[in-house]
Design a protein that fits this description.
The structure holds 2 protein chains of 2 kinds. By secondary structure, chain A is an alpha/beta fold. In chain A, 31% of the residues lie in helices and 27% in strands. Chain A starts with a strand and ends with a helix. Chain B is built from 2 helices and 4 strands; from the N terminus they run E-H-E-H-E-E. Chain B has a 4-stranded mixed sheet with strand order 1-2-4-3, covered by helices on one side. In chain B, strand 1, helix 1 and strand 2 form a beta-alpha-beta unit. The radius of gyration of chain B is 11 Å and the shape is globular. The chains are: A alpha/beta, B alpha+beta.
């Protein structure tokens, strides 16, 4: 049995390690071959980028060597995929190699695409890459007062990030002693301030308390960077002094190039996590087109299901579990407090009041993540 | 009227039906009709509100067995 995992992010790494442990005897006996392909030799803890943008983590704290995270019975290659040839059960890579598989896992993730919105790259700050997060911190540090606008592209990774940024901005400018010189404005795509109704209900009075003003049904159309004006699809215009944007995302280019899914999102069965029409191809994390949050948390819980099912196929010939839509997101709420949203397809989150222990747990998780991707937590 | 695409946003809390619709509309062609399936009770109000504000067109709203079927034509 040849199992090929494409993507060395959260989902791909957890699946490879989880399978390596579950299928140790089979790999040692040569009955199973487990291969992981990644586009990078480094693994980034992406939630840490928000802390980098506020000067609370250094960029080098976000990385580990991918090889150091992997079980020894994983055949690991840094070699990005050039083409998926699904009808032949093959994957072709940039180096020219052809990998054949019996079971394929696609966990290629997503990327921000600010260039698709006119003026956005020139006019806005982001924190979804190392370079943009460092630049955003420098802009925040230099800022002396005025209107800070935070707007949100669709679709985007980490749906909790927009509200967390507002709390972090309030804390940041208070600590600098210039909060009274800063107007915080929040622009959100749908008709309430967060897509999860219970998060919106909780965040609204919190925003009122710290003086965050908001406008809803606001989708970014373009940015006039020269005159510092943000324009919406709905026809409104906003002046800003500093613009921070949660950028629109797409799946990886190879997915679109091979016509595997519009926007780079692969049509996926929401319970089995198999690619529609391909029972031996699993899709996990940001890469799916599922109506599920694009977060490391969703990727983690999906990865556990997929790994258990693939191992079961090897051992007993059939999968054993469905994915129930589980997501668990920490929410940094400012003032060194945090809460969380846990939900699945059928049960909405029930938010608890933010607390300091939950914030400390989040800070601890920033380190525990490395245990998580090793498949131990 | 033929539906170009059906988006199954039933039983989802995040990103939710309207986010799914906004996301799809970015890639759709003018004239495409999308049918959104939603079990969110708020969809029957907030989706027409956004469609009207942004300048697309609602071409159907009905509830069948607890599922909202909302049809939207991309107008620009």
């Amino acid at each position: 049995m040849r199992i090929l995992v494409v993507g060395g992010g959260t989902a791909g790494t957890i699946i490879a390690n989880n399978l390596a442990r579950r299928l140790g005897p089979e790999t040692r006996a040569g009955k199973v071959r487990l291969t992981l392909l990644s586009a990078s030799d480094r693994h980034m803890y992406q939630p840490g980028l928000l802390y980098v943008a506020f000067g609370q983590m250094a960029p080098d704290q976000l990385y580990r060597d991918e090889a150091s995270l992997l079980e020894p019975n994983i055949d690991f290659h840094v070699d990005p995929v050039k083409q998926f040839v699904l009808d032949k059960n093959q994957v072709r890579t940039e180096s020219g190699k052809v990998h054949e598989y019996d079971i394929l896992v696609i966990a290629t993730g997503s990327r921000m695409v600010p260039d698709e919105t006119p003026g956005l790259t020139e006019g806005a700050e982001f924190f979804y890459t190392e370079a943009s997060a460092v630049k955003m911190y420098q802009k925040l540090r230099e800022f002396q007062g005025g209107r800070v606008a935070v707007a949100v592209g669709v679709p985007h990774k980490c749906p909790i990030a927009p509200v967390e940024v507002m709390f972090a901005l309030n804390d940041f400018f208070k600590a600098r002693g210039i909060r009274d010189k800063v107007q915080l404005k929040y622009y959100y795509p749908i008709g309430r301030i967060h897509t999860i109704e219970n998060v919106a209900k909780w965040a609204k009075p919190e925003f009122d308390k710290i003086g965050v003003e908001y406008e809803t049904l606001f989708n970014i159309r373009e940015v006039d960077a020269k005159n510092k004006i943000l324009k919406s699809e709905e026809g409104t215009e906003v002046e800003y002094d500093l613009l921070i944007v949660i950028p629109q995302h797409r799946g990886m280019e190879v997915i679109e190039r091979d016509n595997m899914g519009q926007g780079g999102w692969i049509p996926t069965d929401r319970y089995k996590l198999t690619m529609n029409g391909h029972d031996n191809v699993y899709v996990v994390g940001d890469t799916t087109n599922l109506p599920v949050s694009k977060t490391g948390s969703a990727a983690h819980f999906q990865a556990e299901v997929v790994a258990e099912n693939i191992a079961s196929i090897v051992k007993i010939g059939s999968p054993v579990r469905d994915y129930d839509g589980k997501v668990y997101c920490f929410i940094e709420a400012g003032h060194d407090k945090a809460t969380y949203a846990m939900f699945n397809y059928l049960n909405p989150p029930d938010l608890k009041p933010p607390s300091k222990p939950m914030h400390w747990f989040k800070l601890s998780y920033n380190q525990m993540y490395w245990t998580s991707v090793r498949g131990l937590l | 009227m033929s539906v170009t695409k059906t988006i199954d946003a039933r039983d989802t809390f995040c990103p939710g039906p309207l986010m799914e619709l906004i996301s799809y509309m970015k890639h759709a062609s003018v004239g495409d009709v999308v049918e959104l399936l939603s079990t969110d009770s708020g969809s029957a109000a907030d989706i027409p509100e956004w469609v009207k504000k942004v300048g697309h067109e609602m071409v159907g709203t009905e509830q069948v067995d607890g599922v909202w079927h909302l049809k939207v034509r991309k107008a620009k």
